[in-house]
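Exam revision sheet. Question 4 asks you to relate a sequence to its structure. Input first:
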Amino acid sequence: MAGVVRVAHQVGIVGASGYGGAELVRMLAGHPDLDVAVIAASSQAGRPVVELFPNLAGDRVFDPIDVAGLMALDLVFLATPHGPALELGASLADAGTRVVDLSAAFRLTPGGFEHWYGEPHTRPDLAPAVYGLPEFHRKQIADATLVANPGCYPTATLLGLRPLVSLVQPGSVVVDAKSGTSGAGRAAKDHLHFAHVDGDFVAYGAPAHRHTGEIEQHAGGDLGPVQFTPHLLPIARGLLATIYATLADGVTAADVQQAFHDAYADEPFVHLLAPGTFPHTKAVAGSNGCQLSAIVDPRTNRVVVTSAIDNLGKGAAGQAIQNANLMLGLPEATGLSSIGIYP
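Answer key, structure tokens:
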């Protein structure tokens, strides 16, 4: 009997010289149904990919950005800063080309974008786009032309927070999150030098980090203001978010566990740990997985949720591929794993 012939979808990556873009190249190398036809990076066009990323062996070079060529593809991943993504994402969406945008260009309402990013949104008709958190927006993602891939901090936080929306007191949520240095991008920055980061641990961006608005907007209910503080970990990749909130009157520890079970029992990439067992960043490294645990402190009447992801995996490239699979009618987990590299 003749075998089934699989016809791959043609996809492109713009911004492939950054960490998120390079992780897309790595993860898509094993995808059976997505053929990476374009690996574009404006400042690195013509340079061999392996010169920047020795793990990506081969003879590919970075392509120039050809908008007309990108429009002919089945789907384009944008892994650029939000400025270029605003223009290119809008042009591609207008042409009917499906887009997964890894930047913040289309995550917020126009007013929210202007508030948190300090500039007007140039395409308010496209903002916010469908928010690419598959565990909560699967159908909308499948039908979308433009999907806003969530940020890494919001992904870890929202996966831990959304099941609690009706169980906690508004205004009581505090998020204490830590990310590896790859979350700051590949550009050389003084404060990310090894000599500065090694053996150090520092908070930044409080009390008005841009991801605060994204967390509040996409929490799935009225949580009131959220206190969010990010920290820089002296590791290359990995993100751990610890979420604290005061329980509403009458809510029990059993209610909390039931809410998380109801939300994630059938999810392929979210692993619930037993209360008192805590997630590890290394357990999800290199994967699209998220580890979650929730425990109630009866002394303070607070719930403590811990969430671990790979900031370049479920926090960026892995989730983008998960969204692309849905948009192209493929099984959602194709080419992805929830199992991390350990040790």
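Marking note for examiners. Residues 313-327 form the longest helix (15 residues).
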